[in-house]
Structure formats: C-alpha cells, structure tokens
Amino acid sequence: MPHPYSALVWGMGISLALFFSAYALRKSNRNLHKLFAMGGVVFNLVSSVYLIYAVRIAGIEMASQFSFAVITAHRLFATLIALLMLVMVYTGIKRQRRLHIALHRFFLAGYTLTYISGLVIFHG
Questions:
Q1: Which of 6, 68, 104, 115 reaches 20 to 30 Å from 97, CA-CA?
Q2: Average pLDDT taken over every residue of the chain
C-alpha cells in the first residue's frame, strides 16, 4: 500500500493543477472548464478517501513535528474547503453564476493554502 503522503503530494497536487487550469479556461472554453474542474473534484475525493482509509482504518502513521492543535486546525480547514468544493460543484451545475463566481475566490485560495500546509505539516 502506498504511503498516504503520496496521495497528498500527487492526488491533491494534480487536483490543484486541474482547479487552476479550470479557472484559467473559465471564459475561453466552458466545456474544458467543466471537465478540468470535475477532474479536480474526482482527484480530490479519491485522494481524500484514500488518506482517511490509510490513516484511520489501515493505521499508517503520518508523522509530524507539529502539535496536535496545528494538525487538527489543518484537518478542520481541509474539511471546510472540501465542503466548499462540493458547494462549488452544485452552484456550477445549477448555473448559479454569481454565487459560483463569489465562492471561487475563497475556494482557490483556501485549497492552495490547505495543500501547502499539508505538505509542510506532514512532510514525508
């Protein structure tokens, strides 16, 4: 079984790249925007489920030099960003354009921050 840090680096990293690619294509090609955004969601969800399985069920240790409070804050923020991602999917599908556009500013910044903080906190 691959170490969960691989899911963090590769799965979440590909997801982040897909989200920014979707953002870059938002005006020029809506079909690619949708495809890249949903690809980012799929990579994120698969990576998240694998991380939870590996750490909580399989018991693989993800060592960290950071305190329990820092790790808990990261996990809480990551959960909130994942929920925001699902709201972004909903608003995109339902064509609630104004809300979708308003939320993307928080989502892209928050997802990027969560990704980088995960790399730093759980550096393998």
A1: 115
A2: 94
